[in-house]
Amino acid sequence: MARLIRNKQGIPSTLLTRFLNSPSSLLTLPYYSTSKRSLRTLAYEEIQANPNKPYTHTAFILHGLLGSARNWRSFSRTLVSSLSDSPSEWRMVLVDLRNHGNSAEMEGLDPPHDLVNAAKDLGNLINSKGWESPDVVIGHSMGGKVALQFAKSCGNRDYGENVKLPKQLWVLDSVPGEVTSDNSDGEVEKVLQTLQSLPSTVPSRTWLVNHMLDLGFSKSLSEWIGTNLKKAGGEETWAFNLEGAVQMFHSYRELSYWSLLEHPPKGLEISIVRAEKSDRWDADVITRLESLASPEGDGSAGKISVHVLPSSGHWVHVDNPKGLLEIMAPKLKSLMP
Questions:
Q1: Confidence grade of residue 186 (pLDDT, cut at 50, 70, 90)
Q2: What is the tens place of the pLDDT at every residue in 289-332?
Q3: C-alpha 3: how far from chain center
Q4: Residue 39 in 3-state DSSP?
């Protein structure tokens, strides 16, 4: 059973969400300490298996569009558990990107709301806390492109000398190039257009889910959208800044990171995980990615690896968390203390 934690205002927050539960076989874990922070830069949560021990390694985890840090709590706890037998002590930092989760209410996260500034927010967070740079950055969907932008900017030293390249970058079911109408089914656009057509408050979560179902959206998607509501008096309102998120989505579609994949910086391994059943990948993109997968080499440049997550759609941490863990954990364990 998940431990209940409280933030500074004394509001309870469960460690697992209804929609994003992992299979029960993955939930027989030790208890974990989870701390929550809200900064002027970004809101984030920390998960560490042994909070009384100093951590030796840090991984940042970045959610996708209209998501939040809480979407990744369950998988992060499972990942920490799988790493507990290594000599390293891992800390997971689950970030709420700008316009999302608790960061949606943060002051100082000014426009333009694009991936360049979303990645810069990470650099500002590191600098403001005086942290060392994360060893690993993990990004899902839109968060995967934020991770790629972060690595690109670190390579250019855009955030100062203190913010260095991570050793590993994980891009989870995120197409690295431009996303055009030709290689998109348009579902995300339809969701955003639907949300924009609604008032800023709705009667209840049940009303929203039923409304989405009536419009032809799937039950799982409708329920997930419903998890992004928060109380506003007697009604419910969005837990994200919708207009800012829409701007971030446009940036996600427009930016391409093929050049980074073709010339990865020395010391960085970029691991691309493609979900086997995901509808976001064209055959030519898959072929191009596989051609970039690099052998060990002589160490003069970075490395690209490509993995296929079987029996999974786009929601990799929900559809096949065990398989994702089996791909990621050995590589994280390979990082020396």
A1: confident
A2: 999 997 666 667 899 999 999 999 999 999 999 999 999 999 99
A3: 23
A4: coil
Q: Name the pairing type of β-strands 43-48 and 33-38.
A: antiparallel
Give CATH 3.40.50.1820 domain extents, the chain: 23-180+254-333
CB-CB neighbours of 314 under 10 Å: 18
CA distance 335 to 337: 7
Please say if the pLDDT value at position 187 is more than 90. Answer: no
Widest Cα–Cα separation across the chain = 62
**Residue 37 confidence (pLDDT):** 54
Residue 120 near residue 108, CB atoms below 8 Å: no
The per-type count for the chain, helices as H runs and strands as E runs, is 11, 13
What sign results for the dihedral spanned by CA atoms 264, 265, 271, 277?
Answer: negative
Helix (H, G, I), strand (E, B) or coil at 8: coil
Pairing of strands 269-275, 168-172: parallel
Q: Note the CATH number of domain 23-180+254-333.
A: 3.40.50.1820
Phi-psi region at 108: left, alpha or beta (left = phi > 0; alpha = psi -120 to 50): left
**Residue-wise pLDDT tens digits, 131-141:** 999 999 999 99
**CA dist list (Å): 163 to 120, 252, 290, 307:** 11, 23, 30, 28
Q: Global pTM?
A: 0.87
Q: Residue 44: phi, psi to the nearest 5? A: -155, 165
Give the torsion through C-alpha atoms of 79, 80, 81, 84, to 10 deg: 130
- Residue 81's nearest CA partner among 319, 309, 325, 315 is 325
Nearest CA to 328 among 168, 135, 133? Answer: 168
Return the top range by mean pLDDT from 31-35, 80-84, 134-138: 134-138
DSSP structure string for 316-336: HHHH-HHHHHHHHHHHHHTS-
Q: Is it the case that residue 155 has pLDDT exceeding 90?
A: yes
